Automatic annotation (TrEMBL), chain A:
Record flagged with keyword Signal: yes
Record-linked InterPro entries: Peptide/Ni-bd (IPR030678), SBP_5 (IPR039424), SBP_5_dom (IPR000914)
Signal peptide: 1-19
SUPFAM superfamilies: Periplasmic binding protein-like II
Protein name per Swiss-Prot or TrEMBL: ABC transporter substrate-binding protein
Nuclease recorded as keyword: no
Domain of life the protein comes from: Bacteria
Organism whose genome encodes this protein: Streptomyces goshikiensis
From TrEMBL, chain B:
Entry keyword set: Cell membrane, Membrane, Transmembrane, Transmembrane helix, Transport
Taxonomy, superkingdom: Bacteria
Lipid bilayer topology: Multi-pass membrane protein
Domain ABC transmembrane type-1 per the UniProt entry, residue ranges: 96-305
Primary subcellular site in the record, as a coarse category: membrane
Protein name, per record: ABC transporter permease
Membrane-spanning parts: 12-30, 98-120, 132-152, 179-200, 240-262, 282-308
Signal peptide: none
Family recorded in the similarity comment: Belongs to the binding-protein-dependent transport system permease family.
Length: 541, 315
C-alpha cells in the first residue's frame, strides 16, 4: 500500500506543476493578428525537380502550390473552379477554348506571365523526350500525338498544333474532341506556366523554380532538409501572402513532425500521423481540422480475367451488400473514413448522397439471397489482395471476415509487399482475386472519378485494373464531354455514374478524411481538397 | 607494421569490389515491382512516360551490362543518378556527415560512460553501485531502441518545453543547434551498446583483477591506481576494443531507427528508402561506404591489439 500512496503523491505533484505552467503560458496567445513573420510547416522530400509538368506526387505539389498560380484555382470549400491568372476561359463548342489572361501577374524574376509562358510549359510537358509525368494530361490537345508518338519513335513536332497564341494576353486551345471539363482541369499543376528562364536548364530550374505564385524561392532547395520561400511582393494585391516567409521542413516521419508541432517548433502539420488521431482533438481543440478529402477506397474486381467468379452482377451486388461499411469506418478507422455512397467523392460538385442506393447499404440477408441465386463462385473461394505497406491489412481482413460470415464463402486475404507488385500481377493477369484499390482526383470534377478508372482507354493508360468495358458508359461520357452547358454536362456524367453503379465493376467502400492541426501561434489555416495548405492566407497570432 | 598495413589495405580492394557486385546483384534480383511504378506510388505510371524513363536509365539492359556500366562509371568518379534525376554521390555526401557525427557522439558516450560504469561496478563488486549498473543496464538492454527514442523525444523534446518551459532538446534534429542537436539522438543510439560495454568491462576487469600478475603487482606494493589502470584495465580492454570496433560500424549503418525517430536524414534512412524504391545505385554506393567503414574500423581494432598486448606483433 505504501507504494500506491507515494504514486498518488507523484501524480498530484505533476498535476500541480502542469496547472502552474498552463497559467504561465496562456498569456502570449491573445495579441491581434499581424502581417509578416515566418513559420515552419511539414513536408516530405519531393520526388524530383519542382516543375509542375513533371510533378504527380503530393509533396512536390504542396510546394508548387505556394510558388505558382494556375489559370484557375479551386475554392477551398466548394471545390468549384474559379479564375486565377485567367480573366476569361470561353468556348462555344467545348472543343476550341479561348483563354484570356489578367494583367498584373509576373514571374518572380520580373518577366510577365503571358500567353507564351503557358504554351511553352504545355509544349514541354507534352513532349515525350522530356518524359514528364504530366504528359497524359496533354493528350486531349490537338497534335499531341506528334509530340508523343510512342516508344521507339521520334517526335515529329515540338509544338502542339492545338495551341495558338493570339496576342500577348490571349491564346486558344483546340482539343481533339470536345471536353466540357477542360476549364476545371486547368487548375492541375501540369498546366502551370513557365518563364523563359526554364528553357535554358530545366533541371537547374527544378531546384529553385521561378514561379508566378504568392511565394518565391528563398535560396535553392536544400535537399532532405528544407525548402524556404518568401513573400512575393509584386503579386496582385488581393492574393498577396500575409506571412513574410515559410520554411517547409522535410520530415521522413510524421510522428516526429507531430511532436514538433506540439512543442510549437513547427506551426502546421497537414497530414497527421495515425498515432495522433486518438488524442489530437483534445489537445488542439479547434486548431484541429478534420474534413473530407478527395480519396475513395474500393474493392476492385477482376471482371476481365475472372468472369467465372465476378462476371455475374448478383455476385458483385451480394459482395457489396455483405460489407458493413459503418463498422469498418468506425471501428477500424476511428471515424477517419466515411462510408462511401457514390462513386463520386462527396466533396466534388456532382456528388449525390446515397447514389449507390440498395447496393451501398449493409443487408446480409439480401446479400446471401443474391449470392445463392447466382450460384456463388467456383470453388466457393475468394481472394482479397492488398499491399501490406499502407495500413490496409485491417480493413481488408475485416471485409474478408464479413464476407465469410455473411455469404458463407471461403475468403483469404492475400498481402503483396508493395502496391506495384499487385499491379504487376493484375496486369500480367496472374492474379484473379478481388483487390484493394483507391483513387484520388487530379482535379475536382465528377468526370475524374469515372474516366480514369472505368473507361476503355484506362485499361491501357489509366487505373481500370478490372478491365471493365461498357459501350453505353463510353457514349454517355462522350456526350457529357460534348456538353457546352456545365449543368447539362454534369447531368450526363451523373448518368454515366448511374451506369457504373448499376454494373458495380468496383465496390466503393469508404471515402477518406484529411486531418491537420496547427499550433497556437498561427491562424487562418485552410486546407484544400487535395490536402494542400493555403499558405497565402495564414497569419501569425 | 607498415607492410602489414599495406597488405591489409590491398586486401580490402577485392572485398569492396565483391561487395559492390553482390549488392548490385541483390537489388537487381529483388523480387517485385518495377522501380518506375514504385516512383509513381499508387497511381499507375503512364506507360509511355515509363517506357521513356526505362530507356533513359537503361533499365531494360541485362544485369551484367548494367553492372559493367555502373562500375566503369564509378572508376571515372561517376556514381550514377537516381531515377528521379539526383546524383548519387551528392545524396551520399549530403547524408554521410550526419551519420558520422551522430555515430561519433554516440561512440564517445558509449565508450566513456560504458567503460567508467563498468570499472566502478567491477571494483565495488556486490555493492550498491554494482547493483545499480547491473539493473539499469538490464533495463536498457531489454527496452527496444524505438521505445527509448519515442519516450525521450516526448518527455525531453515536448513536455520539457511545454510544461517546464525549458527549451533545450528538440523532438527533431535541427542543424542550427549544432552539437546540442546530436545529444539526445546520440544517447538513444548509444544506449544499448553502452549497456553492453558496461557489462563487458565489468566482467572482463573482474576476471583480470583475479589474475596472478595483478596479485603480483599488488604484492610489489604498487599504488592501487596503477594496478587497476596499467595491469588490470589494459589487459581487460581487448574484448572491449573488439566490441567497440565492431560497434562503430553498427552505429553507422544501424542508426536507421534513431535517424527516423529524430528526423536525421543520414545514410541509414537513405539506404532504407532506396531499398524500398529499388534505387540500385544509391544502395550500392551507400553500402559500399559502410563496408569501407567496417574495414577501417576492423583494421584499427587489429592494430590496437598490438598496442594493448605486447605479445601481439604484426610483421
Amino acid at each position: 500500500m505504501r507504494g500506491a500512496t507515494s504514486a498518488k503523491w507523484v501524480a498530484g505533484a505533476v498535476v500541480v506543476a502542469m496547472a502552474a505552467t498552463a497559467c504561465s503560458t496562456s498569456k502570449d496567445s491573445d495579441s491581434a493578428g499581424k502581417s509578416g513573420g515566418n513559420i515552419t510547416v511539414v513536408l516530405g522530400e519531393p520526388q524530383h525537380g519542382l516543375v509542375g509538368q513533371n510533378t504527380a506526387e503530393s509533396e512536390g505539389a504542396e510546394v508548387l502550390h505556394a510558388l505558382f498560380t494556375g489559370l484557375v484555382d479551386y475554392d477551398n470549400k466548394t471545390n468549384e473552379p474559379k479564375l486565377a491568372v485567367a480573366e476569361a476561359i470561353d468556348t462555344t463548342d467545348s472543343k476550341t477554348w479561348t483563354i484570356k489572361l489578367k494583367d498584373g501577374y509576373t514571374f518572380h524574376n520580373g518577366e510577365k506571365v503571358d500567353a507564351q509562358s503557358f504554351v511553352r510549359a504545355w509544349n514541354w510537358g507534352a513532349n515525350q523526350d522530356n518524359a514528364a509525368e504530366g504528359l497524359p494530361f496533354f493528350d486531349k490537345i490537338e497534335g499531341s500525338e506528334e509530340l508523343a508518338p510512342g516508344k521507339d519513335k521520334k517526335p515529329t513536332a515540338t509544338e502542339l498544333k492545338g495551341l495558338k497564341v493570339v496576342d500577348e494576353k490571349t491564346f486558344t486551345v483546340t482539343l481533339k474532341a470536345p471536353f466540357s471539363q477542360f476549364k476545371t482541369m486547368l487548375g492541375y499543376n501540369a498546366f502551370y506556366p513557365l518563364p523563359k528562364a526554364f528553357e535554358a536548364d530545366p533541371k537547374k530550374f527544378g531546384e529553385a523554380p521561378i514561379g508566378n505564385g504568392a511565394f518565391q524561392m528563398d535560396g535553392a532547395w536544400d535537399h532532405n532538409k528544407q525548402i524556404k520561400v518568401k513573400r512575393y511582393d509584386k503579386y496582385p494585391a488581393e492574393g498577396r501572402a500575409k506571412l513574410e516567409g515559410v520554411t517547409f521542413k522535410i520530415y521522413d516521419n510524421l510522428d516526429t513532425a507531430y511532436n514538433d508541432l506540439r512543442a510549437d517548433n513547427i506551426q502546421i502539420v497537414d497530414k497527421l500521423p495515425v498515432s495522433a488521431l486518438a488524442t489530437v482533438s483534445q489537445e488542439f481543440g479547434d486548431r484541429y481540422i478534420y474534413k473530407p478529402e478527395s480519396g475513395v477506397g474500393y474493392l476492385g474486381l477482376p471482371l476481365a480475367t475472372n468472369p467465372e467468379a465476378f462476371g455475374k452482377i448478383e455476385i458483385r451486388k451480394a459482395i457489396s451488400m455483405a460489407i458493413d461499411r459503418d463498422a469498418i469506418t468506425k471501428t477500424i478507422f476511428n471515424g477517419t473514413r466515411k462510408p462511401a455512397d457514390d462513386f463520386i467523392n462527396p466533396i466534388i460538385p456532382g456528388y449525390r448522397k446515397g447514389a449507390l442506393g440498395e447496393v451501398g447499404t449493409y443487408n446480409p440477408t439480401k446479400a446471401k439471397e443474391l449470392w445463392t441465386q447466382a450460384g456463388g463462385v467456383p470453388g466457393n473461394k475468394i481472394e482479397l489482395g492488398y499491399n501490406a505497406d499502407g495500413g490496409h491489412k485491417e480493413w481488408i481482413e475485416a471485409v474478408a471476415n464479413q464476407l465469410k460470415a455473411n455469404l458463407g464463402v471461403d475468403v483469404t486475404a492475400k498481402p503483396y509487399a508493395k502496391f506495384g507488385d499487385m499491379l504487376d500481377d493484375l496486369q500480367a493477369k496472374k492474379y484473379k482475386g478481388a483487390f484493394r484499390m483507391a483513387w484520388s482526383m487530379d482535379y475536382p470534377a465528377a468526370e475524374n472519378y469515372l474516366r480514369p478508372i472505368f473507361s476503355k482507354v484506362a485499361i491501357e493508360t489509366g487505373s481500370n485494373y478490372g478491365g471493365y468495358v461498357n459501350e453505353e458508359f463510353e457514349t454517355t461520357m462522350a456526350e457529357a464531354d460534348k456538353a457546352t452547358d456545365p449543368a447539362e454536362g454534369l447531368k450526363l456524367y451523373q448518368k454515366a455514374d448511374d451506369i457504373v453503379i448499376k454494373d458495380l465493376p468496383y465496390i466503393p467502400v469508404f471515402t477518406y478524411m484529411s486531418s491537420s492541426a496547427y499550433s497556437k501561434s498561427v491562424k487562418n489555416v485552410e486546407i484544400d481538397a487535395q490536402g494542400r495548405m493555403d499558405l497565402a492566407k495564414v497569419e501569425l497570432n | 607494421m607498415g607492410r602489414y598495413l599495406i597488405r591489409r589495405l590491398i586486401q580490402a580492394i577485392p572485398v569492396l569490389l565483391g561487395a559492390t557486385f553482390l549488392i548490385y546483384l541483390l537489388t537487381f534480383a529483388m523480387p517485385g515491382a518495377d522501380p518506375i511504378q514504385l516512383l509513381a506510388g499508387e497511381k499507375k505510371a503512364d506507360p509511355l512516360v515509363a517506357a521513356m524513363l526505362r530507356e533513359k536509365y537503361h533499365l531494360d539492359d541485362p544485369f551484367l551490362l548494367q553492372y559493367w556500366n555502373y562500375i566503369t562509371g564509378v572508376f571515372q568518379g561517376d556514381f550514377g543518378e537516381t531515377l528521379s534525376g539526383r546524383k548519387v554521390l551528392d545524396m551520399i555526401t549530403e547524408a554521410f556527415p550526419y551519420t558520422m557525427n551522430l555515430a561519433i557522439v554516440a561512440f564517445v558516450i558509449e565508450a566513456i560512460v560504458g567503460v567508467v560504469a563498468g570499472i566502478m561496478a567491477a571494483l565495488r563488486r556486490g555493492k550498491f553501485i554494482d547493483q545499480l549498473v547491473l539493473i539499469s543496464t538490464l533495463l536498457v538492454i531489454s527496452i527496444p531502441v524505438f521505445v527509448t527514442g519515442f519516450v525521450l523525444q516526448l518527455t525531453l523534446g515536448v513536455k520539457l518545453k511545454n510544461e517546464w518551459g525549458i527549451d533545450f532538446f528538440s523532438p527533431s534534429f535541427n542543424e542550427a543547434d549544432g552539437f546540442r542537436a546530436y545529444l539526445l539522438p546520440a544517447f538513444v543510439l548509444a544506449s544499448t551498446s553502452l549497456a553492453y560495454v558496461a557489462r563487458l568491462t565489468r566482467t572482463s576487469l573482474m576476471e583480470t583483477m583475479r589474475a596472478d600478475y595483478v596479485r603480483t603487482a599488488t604484492a610489489k606494493g604498487l599504488p592501487r591506481r596503477r594496478v587497476v589502470v596499467n595491469h588490470g584495465l589494459r589487459n581487460a580492454m581487448i574484448p572491449i576494443v573488439t566490441f567497440l570496433g565492431a560497434d562503430l560500424g553498427g552505429l553507422m549503418g544501424g542508426a536507421v531507427i534513431t535517424e527516423r525517430i529524430f528526423n536525421i536524414h543520414g545514410v541509414g534512412g537513405l539506404l532504407a528508402k532506396s531499398v524500398y524504391l529499388k534505387e540500385g545505385a544509391v544502395v550500392v554506393g551507400g553500402v559500399t561506404l559502410l563496408v569501407l567503414v567496417y574495414l577501417i574500423a576492423n583494421l584499427i581494432v587489429d592494430l590496437l591489439y598490438a598496442v594493448l598486448d605486447p605479445r601481439i606483433r604484426y610483421a
